[in-house]
Amino acid sequence: MEHIRTPKVEQVRLMDRFSNKSTNGTLYLTATHLIFVESLNSSSTAAQEIWILHHHIASAEKLSLTTTGCPLVLHCRNFRLVHFVFPRERDCHDIYSSLLRLLRPVSYEELYAFSYNPKQNDQQREEGWQLIDLRAEYERMGVPCDQWQLTDVNRDFKVCETYPRDLYVPITASKPIIVGSSKFRSKGRFPVLTYFYQERKAAVCRCSQPLSGFSARCLEDESMLQSISKANHNSRFIYVMDTRPKLNALANRAAGKGYENEDNYSNIRFQFVGIENIHVMRSSLQKLLEVIGTRSLTMSDYLVGLEGCGWLRHIKAVVDAAVFLAQAVTVEGASVLVHCSDGWDRTAQVCALGSLLMDPYYRTVKGFMVLIEKDWISFGHKFADRCDQLDGDPKEVSPIFTQFLECVWQLTEQFPQAFEYSEWFLLQIHEHVHSCQYGNFLGNNERQREELQLKERTHSLWAFLFGEKQNYLNPFYNPTYNEEHPVLEPSTLPYHFKFWRNMYHQFDRSMHPRQSILKTILTLKEKHDKAESTLQALEKRLHQLGVTPVVSSDPTALPTRDQRSNPKALPPRPDSIILGAPVSHKEEQRLEEEQEEVGEEALESNDSERTVEGSSGTDSRKQSYGELEGTYNEMAKEEPAVVSLEFGVARMTC
Amino acid sequence: MEHIRLPKVEQVKLLDQVAPRKSRVGTLYLTATHTIFVESEDGQRHETWVLHSLVSSVEKQSPSSSPSGASLMVHCKNFQLLQFVIPEEQDCQDILLSLRRLSQPESYEELYCFAYKPNVDEEERQREWDFLSLTSEYKRMGLPNPHWKLSSANQHYEAAVCRSSQPLSGFSARCLEDEQMLGAVLRSNPRSEVVYVVDTRPKLNAIANRAAGKGYENEDNYSNIKFQFMGIENIHVMRNSQQKMLEVCELRSPSMSDFLEGLENSGWLKHIKAVLDAAAFISKAVAEEGVSVLVHCSDGWDRTSQVCSVASVLLDPHYRTLGGFMVLIEKDWISFGHKFSHRCNHVDGDPKEVSPIIDQFLECVWQLSEQFPCAFEFNERFLITIHHHVYSCQFGNFIGNNQKEREQLGIQKRTHSLWSYLWSNRADFINPLYRPNHSQTLGALRPSTAPHCFKFWGGLYNRFERGVHPRQSVEDCLRAIREETEQLEEQLASHKQKISKLEGQKWTVSNIFDKSPTAWIFTPDLRLANTPQDYTSCFLTSGTRAAEDSPDLTPPDLNQTSNDLNQTSSFNTSNSSDHESGVADLSAQSPFSEDGTRDSDEAANSAA
């Protein structure tokens, strides 16, 4: 509180980024949020509110004074850009200096997660943290098994402090081998199991680069790789994927690091993949944002800019690597060891995306949470550094996790039926990686999180997201599709990669086409479900009347019903996608109206609208979007599912 | 026949463009109309048919480039690319010469449409041509009316879109009659004091035309006009642009930079955007400002057709229906003399006359359908099919360069019409997301023309890409749900029928049901049913009665009822009624017949 100089400024104008429109209102500065409340005028009945979490503000910039006032521009980590104009320079300066302090927390204790209190009791909070259980996940994959075991070597973070306590290694890898190998790897990150493809007994392992320099060897490390190889009887070799460009790996040798020498390791196939480093990615995103932020962009500038920033090229590189990984494991049945430099950025991207291609479970809501928990959180992706949670080294900041989410989105565009979750799930996760509202992403590794006692003092995002799962379901999801295509084989031809408008223009309403396909799809589904349940009721009635219902001439006419009578048969389509869940009729009605309304004119919303960042993202986003473009034939865009909930910080804390 | 030097070659290899290892070996046949590649590996017979009229170029590559024989590249007008490897070079040469001759007919008489004989009798064929009639279309638009005799207009807006070619103004020439003509256009719209004259060309081109005694309207000579250049490039620029874009599509394994640079460099999307920008300008002028617009380019048959027809799609929901879209092409393209035979190179002619103007129009509509997925009754497949047949010469519609030529060729007497073919196969072309009553669908579309709203149309340009994962179509998924729902409905109806019979018997026995909310079940009109939840619970509460008698209902009986019911119950979210009615009916009804609807929509528009 002591940082707030002026809690309220009136007559502030909010400028639209891409047009000359503006809105007048009052700006409030609270301990956690910056709030803009539109002034009421005669024509509108309710005021629009925009809530911006301080943690979401990446930078504040005071522009030079103009005739209309003093402009302040805020760049947010969720790609919102707000441009205020203050009538008095003094106010602008006060807000600016307060913000500068507020958006640079120096200790974890200042983060929102420690003050966020969603009116839950301790038991609920604890249950939230128990939702994701990684041991159960390894069991699901089929480990421990006769070739892989849980090791307690890192029980006290002694061998590698950025790894989790629980690690899975080949049965033949003894403790001395593990310890020896860890000493030969950057940051002690020795090869461990991250995904096990049961069908071919092939493993995906991850580690950091070896400290090989120009000629160093390590026998333990060599036998570590040997035992990974031996754990898979289906293949006589393992792939070692160095996800860096060869040049980078070579340069690392001069610093005593580098890559595996095929002469020293028996039965490995070494492969460079060529994903660029965090600095290249950071500036690439920076350039992308500059291009798309340009007003009245021409087609040439757009395409040249898109090419020049290299962003889609980098996305394609990650997907290419994941495709290679998935093919090696599923087609060749070979185990793969993935690393980059420290094994927490590119390695996390490739392992996670590769697993997503191989295993339909990760394409479900719960599975995706598990995947992030495993490959990103537990294996020590440095969220605090990469997302700039505390005032730190700007060179450590990089959109690595954002890229991963985008890769997943690109896949959802190619395989609209394969994912249980929609785009909104990805956007919501992105929102909260930066919001610091939940404990999950705080800190850089498991050890640090334990020290911060996050499970005792903060709430879990997964429980929150799981609780409103309905909002994130993809109406096109078809579990049968996943049974028929357990392994996705995406095309990585360039034209399959698209600019992700809903991520990077998420808050620029004028940039969104306004027609939604959601309502149509929901109506369709609603009718279907109605018909189905009516039929059941009627059949029951018929049964009571003593008639065995005769299935009409077409035997395939009623797959869903048949499937119900035979629980072993696989569902041809999910039983209920959205409307199967108990949504009261009244609520639907209201939502339909709401949809219609935003559909008419996204810019004019009559509802009291709150755009609360970092809290009820779905709710606010749905309102602020208006109707979204849907590309039903090329790939589907999904909208947030139907139910608009009245939750969120704004309502809970105020 | 005499052009076929070699009717059959064996052991020919068809290379796969994406995955060269997946090439297939088979036999190549040349017939009078098609090139046919038949492969019969593993007992599975697979045939690839390529119509000669779709072949745009054939090239032979020197045998040294592929050791197993001489290679033949066949580029098609529908963007298919086939690469054959023929073991003997002489065979390859023969095929090359034959195909070249066959794919470049010297006269209209050689075109496929005159040989195409589907199994329909003469009367039926004639009916195909009567299917679309433009006079009924003008009637639909409310013409002639006191203000308009015969020209393109839109009754609701009172403002009109007119088209012409450039004036022969040179540097200073005037023509009083022409000035009066524009004055007449102006007066016909009592609500506006000006007329926009839209010259769709870049200003430089128009100025250059002045030297040839042509040019553009001088605002000083014409009273009350507002003149505007639009900057759409000419046919030569468009031809080169598409050529460059296709080269990008044909790259073997392009990098992201190759693709984006190539796409930018081709300028294709820039041109698409220019057409859409111009159309959006006109649509805005007519719908929001109520100003009439005169559109022209040089001859008024290329850019003018594009811009007028795209503007019509934006303005009038009727043109976003299957039937309406056919009418639009018939009106703005065929009847106003877009030179299809020259632009599409139907017969061997001047290569400089060839240009993908109609491709661009179809792509503009596709780009719009991506922005407004619920506004179009037809799907992408419809556009692609039209594109295919513009070039295939299988139907008579697009043959020749204008109405006069078509009459001379006796097109309507000797060939078949694409429109009736499309209409009878309309089930394939329906967009399951179409919502005719959506507020946006009812009014004028206001598209965004920001660059990121334009996408590369892989569905058209890369649709023959093989070896890529099987494309899954969400549309098909939706259609499946819809069909499944319909089947459920059918069964539902039969069950209800059965129950009502059974209950009817009980009716006499007990009176309990009379008061129960399920009483509706006895009414023949099942659409009065409440929500399923309602009566589900009713059944559950009242469902303790034991089963006693089971009168047999024979399946034919069931089918009978279900069919009847199916006809009465309209379960379709969108437009099934349209299917039954047909274009003639459709064109009779104005989309704005209800003032109330329109007003609310206008309010929505003005709120913008």
TrEMBL record, chain A:
Under InterPro entries, the record lists:
Myotubularin, Myotubularin-like_Pase_dom, PH-GRAM_MTMR6-9, PH-like_dom_sf, Prot-tyrosine_phosphatase-like, Tyr_Pase_AS, Tyr_Pase_cat
Q: Which SMART domains match?
A: PTPc_motif
The alphabetized UniProt keywords are: Hydrolase, Lipid metabolism
Q: Where is this region: Disordered?
A: 546-641
Q: Which Pfam families match?
A: Myotub-related (PF06602), PH-GRAM_MTMR6-like (PF21098)
Q: Which residues carry out catalysis?
A: C340
Q: Which GO terms describe its cellular component?
A: cytoplasm; nuclear envelope
A Gene Ontology molecular function term of the record: phosphatidylinositol-3-phosphate phosphatase activity
Question: Looking at the keywords, is Hydrolase present?
Answer: yes
Presence of keyword S-adenosyl-L-methionine: no
Give me the residues that bind substrate, please.
Answer: N277, I278, C340, S341, D342, G343, W344, D345, R346
One of this protein's GO BP terms? phosphatidylinositol dephosphorylation
Question: Which positions fall inside the Myotubularin phosphatase domain?
Answer: 128-504
Where do Acidic residues bias regions lie?
590-606
Q: Which family does it belong to?
A: Belongs to the protein-tyrosine phosphatase family. Non-receptor class myotubularin subfamily.
Q: What is this protein called?
A: Myotubularin phosphatase domain-containing protein
Q: Which organism is it from?
A: Knipowitschia caucasica (Caucasian dwarf goby)
UniProtKB/TrEMBL annotation, chain B:
Cite a single GO MF annotation: phosphatidylinositol-3,5-bisphosphate phosphatase activity
Which residues carry out catalysis? Answer: C297 (phosphocysteine intermediate)
Specify the superkingdom: Eukaryota
Region feature (Disordered):
546-608
Q: Which residues form a coiled coil?
A: 471-505
What Pfam families does the record tag this protein with? Myotub-related, PH-GRAM_MTMR6-like
Task: Extract one GO BP annotation from the record.
Answer: phosphatidylinositol dephosphorylation
The protein's UniProt keywords, in alphabetical order, are: Coiled coil, Hydrolase, Lipid metabolism
Compositionally skewed regions (Polar residues) per UniProt: 557-567
Mention any one GO cellular component term assigned to this protein in its UniProt record. Answer: cytoplasm
Q: Where does substrate bind?
A: N234, I235, C297, S298, D299, G300, W301, D302, R303
Q: Which InterPro entries match?
A: Myotubularin, Myotubularin-like_Pase_dom, PH-GRAM_MTMR6-9, PH-like_dom_sf, Prot-tyrosine_phosphatase-like, Tyr_Pase_AS, Tyr_Pase_cat
Hydrolase: present as a keyword of the record?
yes
Name the family.
Belongs to the protein-tyrosine phosphatase family. Non-receptor class myotubularin subfamily.
Query: What protein name is recorded for this chain?
Result: Myotubularin phosphatase domain-containing protein
